[in-house]
Design brief:
Low-confidence stretches: 39-47, 49-54
Order of helices and strands: HEEEEHEHEHEEEHEEEE
Largest sheet: 6 strands, mixed
Number of strands: 13
Oligomer: single chain
Distance between the termini: 26 Å
Structural class: alpha/beta
Strand order of the largest sheet: 8-7-6-9-10-11
Helix content: 10-25%
């Protein structure tokens, strides 16, 4: 039995938690503050993580849940640190653009996929913003957009004459974001901007137009694969992974 893939599975999870690998051998990988060893014992195959004594418990990533779900991940696309850096960059752009015009937008998170992204983003926006949620559905429990987005849950705030910033997890076909932009326009928003963590232009079917002086903020360009983690799900699972990765086909096909 080749145990190398199992060792790499652990390594991927540790790297996704921001740990940096120093050295790797067939059965052992060394990081800055921990090491991973695997092999066979009287109970069969095992893989263990050993933290150096100087690493306090609160600095040690919790791997139990992540490993259970991590085994379903084909590869990690963006680590927790890479996501954090990108969110910070997007927030800086928003602060600059809206702040220079003394505009405090209504930030509208698109539930449910954008909830983690929204939470991290708004904490880095240094403007007197207001926040609301809207729900738009186009996937259901599948992996491909149905092409017929609906809005089963609407805003509570009045956006008449306001500058709206829609926060999405991903823009792929463009149908959902087009529907939401039109919806904000019908409510009288003076401008509508879009901030999406992932952009998947290879799947684009609909060209969307922003309202007024609205801008399009995008994080990572996503390959044409089904991704989960950091709010992204399949059948409502995997949202709690701290990184974004490609889900193995056997878990959704």
């Amino acid at each position: 039995m080749d145990i190398k893939p199992k060792l790499r599975s652990w390594v991927s999870i540790l790297e996704a938690h921001g740990l940096q690998m120093i050295q790797e051998s067939v059965l052992h990988v060394t990081f800055h503050n921990c090491s991973v060893s695997c092999g066979y014992g009287f109970r069969g195959f095992s893989c263990r993580t050993y933290f150096v004594r100087s690493t306090p418990p609160e600095k040690r990533p919790s791997l139990t849940a992540s490993m259970a779900l991590g085994n379903h991940i084909e590869r990690v696309l963006w680590t927790e640190q890479e996501i954090s850096d990108k969110v910070s960059d997007l927030a800086s752009q928003i602060n600059r653009d809206f702040g220079s015009h003394n505009i405090a937008p209504v930030v509208v998170g698109v539930a449910t996929g954008a909830f983690l992204f929204l939470a991290d983003l708004v904490r880095m926006i240094h403007l007197p913003i207001t926040v609301d949620f809207i729900r738009a559905e186009s996937y259901g429990s599948g992996t491909v957009s149905s092409g017929q987005p609906t809005i089963p849950f609407d805003l509570k705030l009045d956006v008449q004459g306001k500058h709206v910033l829609l926060v999405e997890d991903i823009v792929d076909t463009g149908r959902t974001i087009c529907c939401l932009i039109d919806h904000m326009k019908s409510k009288g928003a003076s401008s509508v901007s879009v901030c999406t963590l992932l952009d998947k232009p290879v799947r684009r079917k609909v060209h969307f137009e922003l309202v007024g002086e609205g801008k399009f903020y995008k994080g990572f360009e996503c390959p044409d694969e089904f991704v989960v983690g950091y709010g992204f799900d399949f059948a409502e699972v995997y949202r709690n992974l701290p990184y974004i990765g490609v889900l193995k086909p056997e878990f959704y096909m």
